[in-house]
Amino acid sequence: MAEAGTVSVVIPAYNEEDAIGALVAAVRKAGSWGEVLVVDDASRDRTAERAEAAGARVVRHPYNKGNGAAVKTGVREARGDVVVLMDGDGQHDPADMPRVVEPVGVYDLVIGARAAADQAPVRALGNAVFNGLASWLTGRPIADLTSGFRAARRDRMLEVLPLLPNGFSYPTTSCLAFLKAGHSVAFVSVKARAGTGRSKIRVARDGVRFLLIILKIVTVYSPLKIFFPLSAAALLLGLAYGVWNVVRFGKIPMGSALLIQLAVVVFLFGLISEQIAAGQERK
Hints:
The chain is an alpha/beta fold and 283 residues long. It has 2 domains: 4-221, Spore Coat Polysaccharide Biosynthesis Protein SpsA, Chain A; 224-282. It contains 10 helices and 7 strands. α2 (47-53) links the parallel β2 and β3. It is elongated. The two termini are 31 Å apart. The model has no long low-confidence stretch (mean pLDDT 87).
């Protein structure tokens, strides 16, 4: 287990004055952490003042950049060898921090996995779909792709910072980037509570973003996971369409030939992308 004095607790916050003070106090009570760092993403309320009053070191953005940008700032500014990331709305229980931090060292990234019962039904269903898709694409069971409660080696987090978006999907991106880069990732069950205020995540809008991020990260590290199924689907559809037309009309239609050609082109693009990805890993 990482020594508590080497741990920096990073809390991105935007307009969280109702929760941040109590959260910082609870975090400090949960362990003798090296520091508690709150990144105030240009809040319009007293988030920064209440965080400082509770004993946190506060770094302020001059304008609102997004949750992911606040996380990037926090990781760069952190002084510890291990960083713990938590949401600023109080949904994560600081009492779970020792269990999340403990495996760091054996693992490069440890994610606090929430139970489906602790989430709204629609969000739980969406997360289950994303978890299943990401598990298939990465070849590794993923218990909670979108949890913002996690601990990681700071040097490993610095490696993936350029890949992280400035918005709310940094948990998805960082988890997939760690897995596809060959780093060790573990999941620890945690209890999630209802956060204060109104959620800034929108299911439809951010769900599409999460899906695109999953495809983006897997394309960067394992392109054939994307290109091969598309190629196979086009090939099978083209062959089936061609056979059906031969049996019924005695000729092969142009559509069938185009689908087969598409399958070949997509597969070749996948092979080229796979070689590029392999070349980047060897650098």
